[in-house]
Amino acid sequence: MKHKIIFLLFSILFTWSTSAQCAMCRAVLESEEGQSTAEGINDGIVYLMAIPYILVFAIGFFIYKKYSKTLKQNKTE
After folding, report:
1. Helix-, strand-, coil-residue percentages of the chain, each rounded to 5
2. Half-sphere exposure of 7 (CA within 13 A, CB side)
């Protein structure tokens, strides 16, 4: 369990510094004077990438809670 928590923390920390652009987007945005648009594109890509993982985690957590609650009720009976 300890290794899973450490892995999760490292995964979260390393995603904050990623640059998630495709090659074509990078070429177009690097030719621009200010980098504010490129930073906005990067943030949007990371946001869109993170949402499915958060949803899968939340669904898995609720299934786990329901399953463990059912197991506890069966043990007490």
Report:
1. 80, 0, 20
2. 4
Residue type at position 14: F
Amino acid in position 28? V
Is the C-alpha dihedral spanning 39, 32, 25, 18 positive or negative? negative
In angstroms, the CA 22 to CA 30 distance is: 12
Residue 54 — very low, low, confident or very high, per pLDDT cuts 50/70/90? Answer: very high
Q: What is the largest CA-CA distance in the chain?
A: 70
Query: Does 32 or 65 have the greater pLDDT score?
Result: 65
Indicate the number of domains in the chain: 1
- State the average pLDDT over residues 9-37: 69
- Provide the residue range defining the domain that includes 59: 2-76
